[in-house]
Amino acid sequence: MIARTPDQELSCWLATFDAAMSRCDVDAAMNLFLTDAFWRDLVAFTWKVHTFEGHDAIRDMLGVCLARTAPILWQAAGPARLDRDIVEATATFETATARCSAVIRLKQGKCWTLFTFMRELKGLEETSGARRPHGAPPCYQPGRKTWRRQREQDARELGVTRQPYCVIVGAGHRGLSLAARLKQLDLSTLIIDQRERPSDTWRDRHETLSLHSPSWLDDYRTLIDIDVWTDTECLIAKFNETSDEWMPKVVRNGGTVEFNPKQLVFAIGLFGAPKAPDIPGMRRFKGEQRHASSPRGNGNYNGGRCVVIGSGSSAHDISAEFWEAGADVTMIQRSPTIVMRHDSLVASLASLHGDEARARGVTPETADLLFASVPLRVLLQTQQQLVADINRYMNGYGRQASSSLFVRTTLVSGRSYCAILPAITLTSVPLS
Prior knowledge:
Elements: H1 6-22, H2 26-30, E1 33-42, E2 49-53, H3 54-69, E3 72-76, E4 81-83, E5 86-94, E6 98-107, E7 110-121, H4 147-157, E8 166-169, H5 173-184, E9 189-192, H6 200-203, H7 214-224, E10 228-229, E11 232-240, E12 245-252, E13 255-258, E14 263-266, E15 289-291, E16 305-309, H8 313-324, E17 328-332, E18 337-338, H9 342-348, H10 355-359, H11 364-372, H12 376-396, E19 402-403, E20 418-421, E21 424-426
C-alpha cells in the first residue's frame, strides 16, 4: 500500500466530509472523527463560541445545527503540513448565511480537532481588498461635501441628532477593535470612555509596563477614524422590550445624554474592579500601599525595602521598576512559577509568529487562525508539556526552573513599608 501525502490525506477527508455534510448524514460525518475528537466552533454553526468534546457532544451539535447551517464546498485553503503524526491544514466552506474558514488536524486519516470560524456574512461582505473604498468621489457635483466635511458632520451628529447602531462602553483594546470591525460593516458605532484618552487605562500605571503600548491605542483610534466620546461616564443602561433597543444614560460635559442603540457592548476589561486582599497587619502598616492598577507612586524608593505580592506580568514589571530605583525588592508568590528568558519565549512562538513563520508562508491572519483553533483542553496540555520541557532543560544545567518563595514579613514600629497590591506591590520606604 502506497502511503498518502498530507495533501492527499486532507483531500480525501474533505471530499468525504463535504459529501456527508451536503446530505445531512450525521452518522457518516461522525465516522470521520476520532472518539476523543474536539470541534471548536466560532459562530459558524452555533452562532456562539463553543467547544464540543467527544463523539456524543459533536453528534448532538450536528443534530441541532447541521440542517439549518447547510455547509457546502469544503476545500483546502493551502498545502497541508505534517507535524509528527498530525496532518494540519486550513480550509474554506460556505453555509446558508456565511463564508467560513476551518482548521483541521488529522490523525490516522480521522479528524482529531476541527475549528470552524465565520469569516463574513453573505450580503455584508468585508470592505477589504478589491471592495475597499478608494477615497475618490464617484462624481463631482455642485454642493458636494468633501470627505472631511462629511466626516466632521457625521461626528457632530452621531449620538446627538442621529442614534448610533451600537454603543461600546470602554475605549481599550477590545472596544477599539470591535468598533473597527463594525466600521468595516458600515455600522454606525460610538465608543464612550470615562478617561481623557483611550490610552489612559495603561498610561497611568507603572512606568515599566511593557505588556501594552498606550501610544498604539491613540494612534489606532486616529488611523481607523473611530468615533469616541472621552470624559464620558455610563451611569445606567436598561433594555426597552417594546422598541427592542437599549437605553444607556451617560454623563458628558456636565450634562446627561440618553441613547437608543440596537446594540450595547461593555468592553470594560477582563478583570473588572481591582481587588486588594485583606492581609493581616495592613491597617497597622505605616508605609505606602498600592494596587498595581493604581497611578504611579512618587518614585523615591532608593534604599527602601519593597515587597511585591504576586508573580505575574505586572508583578515582574513593578519589581524591575523598584529595583532600578535602588530598592531592595522581594517578590512573594504562593505557588511555583516558571521563569524563562524573553528570547527563549519568543523562539517558542516562532512556528506561528515572526520571521521563521513568514518564511514558511504563515501570515499573521493564518497564525491567529491556527492559535484560535486549539481547544482549551489541548492548549492546557500543551502548556503543561512546555513547562515540563523547560524544567528538564534547566535542570540539565543544574538550575531549578520553578521555585516557590515564601516570605514572612514582620511589621515593626520604626520601619515603614510601601505595599502595592495584586500584583500587590508592597514597597518598602525608609522612615525619614
